[in-house]
Amino acid sequence: MLGCRVMLGPRVMNLATLQGMSPYADTDCHYQGDSQIQSLDLNLEATSVIIRKGDRFEILTHGLKPADSEVRDGWNTEYSVRGKEAVFSASMDDDQFLAGSNPESVVQVTVPEAMKNLTVNLSMGGLELSGISLQSIDAVLDMGTLKLSGVMAGSLNASVSMGDADMRNVDMQNGTVTVDMGSLTMTGCKVTGQLDAEVSMGSATMDLRQKNALLDLNADMGDLTVNGTKAESGILRTNTKETETGKGPVIRVGVSMGSLDLDLDGDIQTIREFPASGKAEKD
Fold it and tell me: If I label 129, which of 59, 105, 213, 231 is the partner at 20 to 30 A Cα–Cα?
């Protein structure tokens, strides 16, 4: 079911486009799905996306073309439900993107407990996830800011090509976090399986709720600091004192060009060889 309130007619739309405005700047739409939906796939270009926990699944948009519009004007919005999967996409042709994209457009999604899988691909803007608990989360942002707060995930994949990734109180079993150019901040996060984090150019600041973990840390061109102590080299392989040798959660962090600052709840001790599997030898 969907209902839309469109404030501008087709003729005004064309005039607005020529003036460098989005013809849908004042358009609000509401999309709903039934309780059987377990997966959501979002594909968006330039907008702000907010995803939060709610009692039912729904999508609210502001500043985007209605999905049921038959007007062909270079703005494209689609919404469909196939079985237990909902797919929502909003895009613009290149000329419309340059002439009349709406920087104030917003997509708000509420996710109920029945939802299990979330995939978001956003070209440019802000992506915010808060208070949701899912089996898998896949969030890809080309340019902008990615924020996760109070999120729980069995599998988490978060990627930012250019911008910042800010994760607070995020619990995950396994996770992959990459930032090509920008900063990675993790505060109050916890890993029970394995975390692979990488920053190509920028900095990584991580404050983890970890008392037992195997660590594989690498800062190629920058300072490496663990629990307030600067490492003598940019490579450090350790385990916490509460971790049985060769066992425990695994945290791998690499920064190619920039600094890495990691704080843990537990003290650490250096081990001679970080194992892919099996036992580790102490110094």
Answer: 213
Cβ neighbours for 93, distance < 8 A, ≥ 6 positions apart: 74, 75, 76
Distance of CA 257 to the CA centre of its chain: 22
Task: Copy the structure tokens of residue 14.
Answer: 């064309």
Distances (CA, A) of 77 to 29, 54, 64, 107, 130: 11, 23, 8, 12, 25
Using the structure block, give the residue that is written with the tokens 């629990």: 227
Is the pLDDT higher at 44 or at 222? Answer: 44
Q: Report the DSSP pairing between strands 229-230 and 133-149.
A: unpaired
Residue type, 55: D
Sequence-distant (≥ 6) Cβ neighbours of residue 114 within 8 angstroms: 35, 36, 37, 38, 57
Instruction: Name the maximum alpha-carbon separation found in the chain.
Output: 76
- Contact of 86 with 112, CB cutoff 8 Å: no
Q: Are 8 and 36 in contact (CB under 8 A)?
A: no
User: Which residue, 168, 210, 164, is CA-closest to 186?
Assistant: 168
Lowest mean per-residue pLDDT among 3-7, 112-116, 146-150, 169-173:
3-7
Proportion of the chain in helix, strand, coil states, percent, rounded to 5? 5, 60, 35
Q: What is the pLDDT of residues 79-106, one digit of tens each?
A: 999 999 999 999 887 655 544 455 679 9
Give the model's pLDDT for residue 221. 87
**Collapsing DSSP states into helix, strand and coil, what is residue 165?**
strand
Length of the chain: 283
Q: Where in 34-74 does DSSP place strands (E)? A: 39-53, 58-62
